[in-house]
Every structure is written in structure tokens, then in C-alpha cells.
Specification:
Length: about 375
């Protein structure tokens, strides 16, 4: 294949697709996936490549017809199930056409179908706890013919009251609930905490001069509205394998909502030092307290949102507990993946993080090893 289609822009990867780390694709600006997936691994392969965050902007696939029907199914149909909801949670699936078995030679035992998958707008569906939602869905579809009142009784002991409140048939089975209804149910069982805007309005930030000396104090709106110089911290948290945790900022943030950012970050408030702020933000946003290394300081500039930033580094061995008010989602990524992603798609990130990451990598990676062009597809690596 390399010899026949040889071109500098063509890369042939001889590898097990189920072992490939699709996050390496973030190093490429436009990623579209077209193919005829092996039918015996199509579901596993789909779920692996659809794992969030995903770099793929379009899927055009030929699948076994049965799988295509399940992916594109609607509520109250035989094909509608846990796989349907898991895929449609972040994507829109359209069944395009059936491909009869008779057009293949040798002829297979099943028909095929072509589907198109497009990512949803992240604000199309309400905020929710995806982990809880998918657990409920798996439980609800574990025995399709049983009513939800029986399958979910440990989670929803007062099912009749909940069903009445959400206008759900009390005898409903899992296949009768649409995706928005499943989200409503999850949010009723465990309501997401809403950000308290009153607190942000009363916060007072130190305003500083070009040498980071305090001149006075102002509210958040005054600081941001007038581009006043102020202070902030960013924290990079690594796991023991050397991967760094990135968070996607909450949809409720007043600045850079849904952009990817440092593990934790925040403003220094009145009567607080940089170190105190770093410890507080780490505990508030990720629910952990670990020793932090004060790594480097960035000067205030337009590209840092007029913030003097102290960057901290820490290592965590246990589980993180992200604050749902602050963080839409988060994930650990190999530093080389972050290098490729920030280089190819800087618009996905909060500007302060981009400056922090560039400064961090300049200090930790030799110049010759820094990313200068999109990465080749490769298995997962750490730096």
C-alpha cells in the first residue's frame, strides 16, 4: 500500500486499531473518519474512537446493518438501547442507506448500511453527570422487559413520585425514555450544583502594577471589564504515569466557557497569597490536596488575560473529584498529545493555559524535542 499510494501526506499505520490511542489525532486540525469497519469489532472500535474528548468532526462508516440500526434508533423501537444512548449522548447519527449483501463477493450472510455521525453542539443538551447517566442507562437496559421502577429501585425508591414529577409513565421500560428524559431523570436523582453568582459578584481581586505590586482592590467585573492587571494561579496535576490532567471549563464560566484549561486555576483574591490560592483552588476544583511545586511565573499580558500567573506542578496518586460547577469534564493526557492538540487547534483552549503550557514545555523539554509539526499517528506516549 505504501508503494502503490506513496505520498508525503499519506501515512500507513500497521497496527491493531483497538490498541491505537485516538487522542493522537488531536495533532491534526481536520479529522474525518471514513471506512468499512470490521463487523466483529465495530461496536468496540466505535466506542473507543468516540470516547470524549474526540478529535473527529465527521464519521462516514459502513457497518453491519443491525449495528447501524442500533446507533440511529429512536425511542420505543426494538433497536433502541444502551449503545444508542451512549453514542447519541455526544453525537447525531443518521442512517444513510442500506447496502445489500448481494453486492459483495463472496456474499456475506448479513446486509450492511452506511451511517453518518456528527458531534453535537456541547450546549445542545442540558448539563449532567455523564458517569451517573450512563450507569442509569446500563441498569435500565440490563433487563429490557422489566419496568424501570424495579430496575432502578435502589436509586429511585420513590419511583411513582419521581415519574409523576417528570411526567414519565410509572410503568415505563427503558426503551420508552428519550435521551433528554434520561438526562432529566439523572439530574432529578442527583441535581447538579449551580454556581452561586452572588459569590463571584462579591469577590475582590488585588489590582497590581506592571511589577505585580498591589495598588488596590476591585470586583471581578471591574477587573475584567477594564483589563486591569491582576493575579492568578494555574496548576498542572500529573498522574504517576506522567500524564497531565486537563479540564474543560464549565458552560457557566463567564470567560472562556467550554475551553480546555489547566488542571485547576483561579484568581488570587484579597488577603490571599499565590500559594494559598493554589492550595484552595486545587481542593475546590479537584477535591485533592497534594504538595505543589512553585514552578514558574508568567508576566501579565493580553495573552494571559492581563494576569500575572504563578504556575504550580503536583503529582496525584488517587482519584480526583472534579467540581461539577467548575468543570464540564476532564481527562489525563500524555504531554505529547497536549503538544499536538495545542499546536493544531489552539482555539480549543483558554489563552492563559496556552501560555502556561508553552512556558512549562520550554522549561522541561529540550528544544530539539519540541513539537514543530503535526505528530505522526503513534501509540500513546508520555514525555
Amino acid at each position: 500500500m505504501r508503494a502503490h499510494f506513496g505520498h508525503e501526506r499519506l501515512e500507513v499505520l500497521n497496527s491493531d486499531a483497538l490498541k491505537f490511542d485516538p487522542r493522537a489525532l488531536f495533532a491534526h486540525r481536520q479529522v474525518k473518519l471514513l471506512g468499512n469497519l470490521p463487523y466483529n469489532i465495530s461496536s468496540a472500535l466505535l466506542l473507543k474512537f468516540l470516547e470524549q474528548p474526540s478529535s473527529i468532526s465527521l464519521w462516514l462508516l459502513m457497518l453491519q446493518k443491525e449495528v447501524a440500526m442500533r446507533l440511529s434508533a429512536s425511542p420505543s423501537t426494538h433497536d433502541y438501547g444502551a449503545l444508542t444512548l451512549r453514542v447519541q449522548l455526544h453525537n447525531r447519527v443518521k442512517y444513510l442507506r442500506t447496502v445489500r449483501a448481494t453486492v459483495f463477493f463472496p456474499q456475506p450472510d448479513v446486509d450492511s448500511a452506511v451511517v453518518r455521525i456528527l458531534p453535537r453542539d456541547p450546549l445542545e443538551l442540558p448539563a449532567r453527570d455523564d458517569e451517573l447517566l450512563l450507569r442509569l442507562i446500563r441498569t435500565g437496559f440490563s433487563q429490557r422487559r422489566k419496568q424501570l421502577r424495579k430496575l432502578l429501585r435502589t436509586r429511585v425508591p420513590d419511583w411513582d413520585r419521581v415519574a409523576s414529577h417528570l411526567d414519565i409513565n410509572p410503568k415505563a421500560r427503558a426503551e420508552e425514555l428519550s435521551l433528554p428524559r434520561w438526562i432529566e431523570l439523572a439530574n432529578f436523582i442527583a441535581p447538579l450544583p449551580c454556581p452561586d453568582v452572588r459569590l463571584t459578584k462579591t469577590e475582590r481581586f488585588p489590582i497590581v502594577d506592571k511589577n505585580d505590586r498591589i495598588l488596590g482592590y476591585a470586583s471581578r467585573s471591574q477587573v475584567h471589564g477594564n483589563n486591569l492587571l491582576h493575579r492568578a494561579v494555574h496548576i498542572l496535576i500529573f498522574d504517576e504515569a506522567g500524564d497531565v490532567y486537563l479540564q474543560q471549563r464549565s458552560r457557566w464560566k463567564d470567560r472562556h466557557p467550554l475551553k480546555w484549561d489547566s488542571s485547576a486555576a483561579g484568581h488570587v483574591v484579597a488577603a490571599e497569597s499565590y500559594d494559598e490560592t493554589a492550595r484552595r483552588e486545587l481542593k475546590e476544583e479537584l477535591g485533592v490536596s497534594v504538595p505543589l511545586q512553585k514552578f514558574l511565573k508568567l508576566p501579565a499580558a493580553q495573552r494571559t488575560d492581563h494576569e500575572f500567573i504563578w504556575l504550580y506542578r503536583g503529582v496525584v496518586s488517587g482519584e480526583l473529584v472534579p467540581d461539577k460547577c467548575e468543570i464540564e469534564r476532564g481527562t489525563f493526557l500524555a504531554p505529547t498529545v497536549v503538544d499536538g492538540w495545542t499546536s493544531a487547534r489552539p482555539e480549543d483552549f483558554a489563552p492563559g493555559f496556552l501560555e502556561c503550557w508553552k512556558a512549562y514545555r520550554r522549561k522541561t523539554v529540550p528544544t530539539a524535542n519540541r513539537l514543530s509539526r503535526p505528530q505522526k499517528f503513534s501509540p500513546r506516549q508520555t514525555a
